[in-house]
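Here is one chain, start to finish.
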Amino acid sequence: MKRKQVAVIVGTRPEAIKMAPVIRQLSASRALAPLVVSTSQHRQLVGQVFRQFGVRIDHDLRTMRAGQTLWDLSGRLVTRLGRFLARERAAAVLVQGDTSSALFGALAGFYHRIPVGHVEAGLRTGDRYAPFPEEMNRTLIGSLAVWHFAPTATAVKSLLREGVRRGAIHLTGNTVVDALRWMAPRCDDREVTALMGAEWKDRRLVLVTCHRRESFGEPMKRVARALVKLAREEADIRVLFPIHPNPEVRKAMVPLLGRSPNIVLCDPLDYGRFLACLRASYLVLSDSGGVQEEATALGKPVLVLRDRTERPEGVTAGALKLVGTETDRIVREGRRLLGSRAAYERMSRASSVFGKGAAAKRIVRILERDLTGKRAGGR
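Its structure:
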């Protein structure tokens, strides 16, 4: 039997991490085969991730331009993805999460009447502008998808409230846990030592990521001031901040952080090195959704540099705390976790609220069943 092709649309590093286990599972299928499409939103970073997972990119659409607007990017994405799907015989399209690549991949699939699967469906903050534009992207994809692969019971409930048919929703867990479980045995503390020097083991490592579009400008500067203050006051910590390549992030962060001796700035890390640093960290400050999930699975407390999260399960589990971008609040909550063993221990218990590492297998089994047997239903 000829294997049916599933077009897997990937644009950014987080998408690559979360789709790599699905692509590997599709590659092992007797009925289906992955057709991996990179839109090049994070071209080099996606390439890094896929090399580590042994995944090959079949097509690179090269959509990025320097200084582009969201609407410029959107136009190129839907045009190039539409033309690509017109050429290729895909039985289904898979998109992940909430990026522009995911939204316009789903829309292009819909235009060609190709059924769309949404990996990590149903996450909501309830505020269409936070995160921006991701919250609206997710919601719109929910109107286009045939399969809604929800990572948690909370996500299932959100989809049901929005009128998605129960039979179209599949509770799978989050594929980021699959990726973490595959990669974790392949990295160790030597990666951290190479970045921080051997003396990092004598201090507590604070890992930071910050890149959300809604935090550009003054909010990021407030975060930077908080980091400088914590690094100055807490002599036994060492802060590691892999800086996102976006020029807006670097413009806000580097001038304020570059002179602090306790803060190490570096370029974005490949997934193996980042995961090694995450495992070695004492505390995490981040506005990344994927980091919230990974840290929760590893039992690493996260101060979330946002006012809302579409991952409330981590807050309920006690692993995440929303602190926003106000300098004083970040410093206060950082001091509390660094200074109180009891407060720290309450947030440092590993939790499986985001899954146990079998999400990709569940997703591919559902696709195999519906694409080679009975027809998949819609909303």
